[in-house]
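Section 3.1: Structural characterization of target chains.
Under the original work plan, the team committed to producing a structural model for every single-chain target entering the pipeline before any wet-lab resources were allocated. The record below documents one such target. The sequence was received from the expression subgroup and is listed exactly as submitted; it comprises 354 residues.
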Amino acid sequence: MIHQDLQLHNVVELEPAEGGGVYLRRFPSRIREAISPLGRMVSQESAGVEIRFVTEARSFRVGLGSLPSVLAPYELHNQDVMIFRGAFFHSRHQLVPGRVNAINVVNIGGVEPFDTITDSAARACGFSPQVWRILLGRYPAILHGVDTYGYPRRPPHADELPSRRWIAYGSSITNGASPTVHHNSYIYTAARIAGLDVCNQGLSGACLCEPEIADYLAARDDWQVMTLELGVNMRGGFTAEQFRDRAQSLVRRISTAHPDRLIVLITIFSNAASPGNSCTPDAQVTARQEDFDAILRELAGQRGTGNVRLIEGKELLADAGALCIDLIHPSDYGHAQIGHTLGPRLRDLLASPL
């Protein structure tokens, strides 16, 4: 989406905010209002949204607002803003909810070595170093504007960004729980390794494979690879038969609409209920988790889904000590482990014929 000569990555809809500015929505209102009660809440988050632009200005100011994070009492939600130039980290800032936060990005002295870097030398992950990237996290974000002090700005050109896009649908783990900084979530590490531009479509506690989500994802035409991290949010309230119906409909709907594009199913990551961990007295959850994983393996091998592949979550997160103390969400180390394992797998799958 282009707005005020800015590219808004992972944004599909703008909504006027109380007190000025616009909410940056990664799901359209018609989808947000059709899914589960929790899904309606977490789909308002601006997780993985980026404000991107190119300018000759050495410094700029951005006005941002936010609402309190939806699940802040239950998950770590720092209202961080991370600023990059291309792949290069610039600075970290923090929003105060309920007010207009003016973030000054000042480059006076000490940045001359960066100005001499060649564009080709800095493109390992697909971003030109001339592209400013303002990365937002798990909170409903409000954009008030960007001031480049009279210098013109423009959205990045296609050749200044990664050439392939990844849509990542899944649970809170895909959504970005619970590293200390949202940018440390596994999808961003994997995307960098694989040279992909990732769109965060995670829904904390609300990855329920609803028909509305299936139709929405199938209708999107702006991706080359889609990952579906499924099961963990459904193991407590859905039978194996119900999970099969929903997951199968989701996979078939997307696969049929895009038979020439890569779809990757990810089974449930290692957690307290995983066989062998025996950290939970609820045997039913463990049994359902095993059933759900078996169903995903079947779906990846069904006739008519030749573009569907499967990656085992337990292979991506092999170390149970990489979890937070809730024994479900990966720590920073766990997200890094997943990302560094998944990134090469996606890169290799994309290089192989379907």
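The chain has a mean pLDDT of 93.
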